[in-house]
Amino acid sequence: MSELRQLDAQVWETARPRANMVHTSKLCDLGRHLVQAGAISRSDAELAQIVQEHCDAPLDRVLLAEGLIDAPTILQAQSARAGLRLASTEELARGADLPAGVDARHLIKAAAAPLRGKDGQLRLAVDSADTAQVGDALPAELTALPRIIARRRDIQASIADNARARLTADAQSRTPESESCRTWRASPARRIAAVLAVMAAFVALTVIYPAPVFAMFIGWATLTLIISTLFKMAAVCARIATGAPESVQPPMQIGAKLPKVSVLVPLFRETEIAHALITRLTRLTYPKCLLDIILVLEENDDTTRQTLAEIDLPPWMRAVVVPDGQPRTKPRAMNYALDFCEGDIVGIFDAEDAPDPDQITQIARRFQAAPPDVACLQGILDYYNSRQNWLARCFTIEYATWFRVMLPGLARLGFAIPLGGTTLYFKRDVLERLGGWDAHNVTEDADLGFRLARHGYRTEMIGTVTGEEANCRPWPWIKQRSRWLKGYMTTYLVHMRRPRVLYRQLGAWRFIGFQAHFLTALSQFILAPFLWSFWLVLLGLPHPLDTLLPQTALLWFGQLFLAAEVLNISFYMIGVSGRRHRHLLPWAPTMHFYTPLGTIAAGKALYEMIVAPFYWDKTSHGHSLQKGAAQVAGLPPIKGSR
Q1: What one-character DSSP code corresponds to residue 86?
Q2: CA 635 to CA 280: how far, in whole Å?
Q3: DSSP annotation string for 455-500
Q4: Positive or negative, the Cα torsion across 449, 451, 452, 454?
Q5: What is this structure's pTM?
Q6: What's the start-to-end Cα distance of the chain, in Å?
Q7: pLDDT digits (tens, 9 = 90+) for 60-69
């Protein structure tokens, strides 16, 4: 059937030869009912049922996703087939108090809600006549209620309204307290007092012993520079020896059905790129009956909600509105939306993402073939506006080196890796077991990468690519990088609360990698000015340590610093040596002037770590679209972007 054109090619080729072998007598109850009612043709029902043999989706979802039937018709068919009436709008709006001990999150996952009618009687609203879907998830007092039929998203909305306070609190505190930073005091008074005391002591020591204090910082900066360089060299060598992350789709396993995949797309004040986002997501080639795209909106973001209300979303895409609360962060929003997901795999996209069309197919098949301890797949992030200006070029070079060289190398060496914020895919049961994301951590991705490792799970890199928009204006870049660095500080402090426990969970090798990654990254950004002082030595100018160290020692330090800079540029050139990025090779040496922006961001991060550790400094998107760079992303001009 041409109407099922969006199905995965392998599923389609397997299903089509069998379409004329199925007869109406073999159709399931719902399919037979729809054919007899004239809602769909026999051939559509037959082929959709064959598709079910390869896709873990009910018949109504296959038909709905492919546009062969609409939601009201499906709902009426479910009602007539089961002999149950439809829930009224008033019943859904009224809802009912949940029984004591019943977790609203379980009800949302099961799509079952107790509703009270005008007659005062309680009834259980379900979205299907198949009672097996909810039997194990609910207590006996609910399963014993008489049933009525309602649309899944209406049931979930009714539960969310009635359990708003509980669900909001759960989203804020889903992660175990021992692995979260939420126990930190939001008030900065004590932190400011402590920092002022430390600064006073530091100033006093500097006045009394200026050269030794300077030497102490120089020593630590040099030590972390050496460790950082060796760390990078090991990762680069491992990456070169083993090759790039695989991008070839594993073959479908015989008898295995493709799983349902949910993708969370957090949006906040993203009106400029909403239309572009929908266009990009529509290009995904994964069977739409298995695709569950959730646009996660903030309750007080009226502009984005209004923009999406004007767009005719496909049936496999929906919005979930997160109640206002604190902290107002991306991880809190994702924690809230997690229970609305239907998939066994949960992925993350950002608003400006342009994923490979076959990305989710690659992810689903890799998870089917991966060992049980692989709980997360991390794709490659790239920038589609790399030619926009110098800052965009440098940011692209940095990302190409990090995602195409460093992360694959570190993973090959057996280290735990910090995750990127998007193109992430998790086994849902593992994600729920770990408590989702820490709502208070502003780099929830890096934190979750190490929490996975602490609990015995692995992350694999996969060669699928997602294009993003490079932040190409200096102050927004600094704001974004300061949030990342603040989150790194937070993540390190949280996991180092109990170093012995962390050591036992990670093991010696990954514990060393954890220390090397965080301490060197933070130290190099914060202490970079001390290393820059060696330019004075290389230029033959006086240095603050002239009174403590002989000239030969200072020259050795200067040469070490220069060698590290040359190696870093070499790493960047390796990162952009592929066909897709070769145009950036001449710009790699200018990374020497790009990295100092990180030191400015580190200062901002330190300040916010003291006064506002949970503050989420949002990155604005859509600037490349405004400048006509949509074609770089492979998109037509976007109507409605401004």
Answers
A1: B
A2: 8
A3: TT-EEEEEEEEEEE----SHHHHHHHHHHHHHHHHHHHHHHTSSHH
A4: positive
A5: 0.91
A6: 40
A7: 889 988 888 8
